[in-house]
Structure of tRNA modification GTPase MnmE:
Amino acid sequence: MNSFSPTEDTIAAIATAVSPGQGSIAAIRISGSSAIETSKNIVDVPGIQDWSTHKVLYGHVTEENRKKYIDEVLILVMKGPRSFTGEDVVEIHCHGGIIPVQKILERILAFPSVRRAEPGEFSQRAVLNGRLSLTQAESISELVSARSRKAAELAINGIEGNIQTTIQSIRKRLIEQLTEIEARIDFEEDLPLLDEKHVKNEIVAIKKDLNELIDNAKRGSWVRSGLKVALTGKPNVGKSSLMNRLSKQEKAIVTDLPGTTRDILESEIILEGIPVTFIDTAGLRDTKDIIEKIGISRTKKTLIHADLIILIFDYSSGWTNEDESILKQLPINIPLLIVGNKSDLTNDQSFEKVPKYILKKENLVIISAKTGNGEDDLINYLLKKCGSSQTHGLDIALNERQLDLAKSTMKSLENINKVFDEKLPWDFWTIDLRQAINYLGELTGEDLTESLLDNIFSKFCIGK
Ligand SMILES: Nc1nc2c(c(=O)[nH]1)N(C=O)[C@@H](CNc1ccc(C(=O)N[C@@H](CCC(=O)O)C(=O)O)cc1)CN2
Ligand SMILES: Nc1nc2c(ncn2[C@@H]2O[C@H](COP(=O)(O)OP(=O)(O)OP(=O)(O)O)[C@@H](O)[C@H]2O)c(=O)[nH]1
Ligand SMILES: [K+]
Ligand SMILES: [Mg+2]
C-alpha cells in the first residue's frame, strides 16, 4: 500500500446531484476527525439518541444562532475505519433542491476544522487509507458516468477488483523474472544457469496477456464512451439526410443547395447498449465562401477523431473524380464504410457508373436516405463493427490512463527482444524489466507519487 501521511483536514461536500425542483432527498458527506463533533454542533436531535457507528439519527439542522431550523434531516454516522474513506464519516440526508443543501454545507464549512472537498477527494482518501485500490476507485467513477448497462457491468467488475488482480498477477510474474536475473548478476557462480530463452518465452507469454487487455480496452472504450461515426462526402450527397434518418430526428437542415451544412452536428442513438454518435459535417469541395471554408476545415478535424468514417456518394449519378479525391484524403488508420445514397433515383444501369473496385468492396452499402431502403444493411454493418458480438465476453476494460500504462509496459517488454537478439548481458534485461514493472505499479497504484494521485482524482466529480 501507499505510505502517504494521513490527511488532517475534515472535508465536506454535497454527495448527490442537486438542482431546483429535482430530487426529493440530497446528502452531504463529511469525512475526517471532526466530522462527528461538527455535526453535533449544527443539529438538534430530540431526546437521547445514540451517536454510535452505523446508526441513523433524526433531527434538525439549525441556523447559526440555533433559533431557527434550516431543514429536517436524517444523520448517518460511520466511525472510522468502518467507513467509505476509512475516517469518521457523517452523512446528512436533507430535502432536495439547492437551497437547503447549500445552506447546510455553508454551515458546516463555517467551522475552521472543515474545508470543502476537492473533486474525488473522498475516493482518494479511501485509497490512501487502504479501503480501496486505485483501479477500484476509478471504476466507481466510471460506474457513476456509465451511459449503458454494459458500461455499468464493466465498472462493477472493476469495483470488484478484477483489474487490480489481473494486473498485479502480471506484475508479479515480471518481478519473478527480474528476481531470477538479479540473483544471477549478484551471485552468478552459486546458482544454476539461467536460460535466456526460458526468460524470453515467459516474457512472450506475459506480452500475450497484456495484448489481450489492450485489445479489450478498445472495445471497452466503445462501451463506455460510445462510437463516433463521422459522415463525409461531396456536398449534396445526402449526409444530413442520412443522419436525420438514422437518429429519427430532423436535426440537420436539408436543402438541395450544395454547402448547406457548415457547423458540425451530432446525434446519438444506442445500438445494442453502445452509444453511437453520428457526426454530420460540411460537404468537402473547393469553395470561396468563407463560412463554408471554416466548415470544411472543421470537417477535416472531426474526421481525424472518428472511430468510423462513412463516405457517402450519390449512387444515382455514380462515382466521380471528386469522390475519388475525397477517398484518397481520408485518414488511412480509421475504418471506413462507403455508402452509395439515393438508390431510389437509380435505374438498373447505375452500377455501371461505379468502378468495379468500389463495387467489390465489402464495406460498401447502397441505401436511400429518402425511402429508408438499405438502412438495415447499414445498421447491421455498424452492429458488426461495434455491437454485442464485439463486446460479448468482454469482462475487463482498462480506462485511458490504465491503457497508456499497459502500452508503455508493452514497449519496455518489446525492447527485451533486442537485448535477447544481440545477446547482451543480464544487466541489460533488468533495465527494461524494471521499467515495465514500474509502469504496472503506477497502473495499480502500488508505485505512485502523490502528485500523480492528485491528478487522477481531480478528474472525478465533486463529492465522490
Ligand atoms: N448513503 C451512502 N450510500 C452509498 C455510499 C455512501 O458513501 N453513502 N457509497 C459510497 O460510495 C456506496 C457504498 N459504499 C460504502 C462502502 C463502505 C461503507 C462502510 O461503512 N463500510 C464499513 C462497514 C461495513 C460493515 O458493516 O460490514 C466497513 O467496510 O467496515 C459504506 C458505504 C454507495 N452507496
Ligand atoms: N431522391 C433522394 N434524394 C435525396 C436522398 N438523400 C438526400 N436527398 C436530397 O439531396 C439533397 C441534399 O441532401 P442533404 O442531406 O442536404 O445533403 P448533404 O450531403 O448534407 O449536403 P451539404 O450539407 O450541402 O453538403 C436534398 O434535396 C435531399 O432531399 C435520397 O436518398 N434520395
Ligand atoms: K445540401
Ligand atoms: Mg448537410
Notes: Residues 196-225 form the longest helix (30 residues).
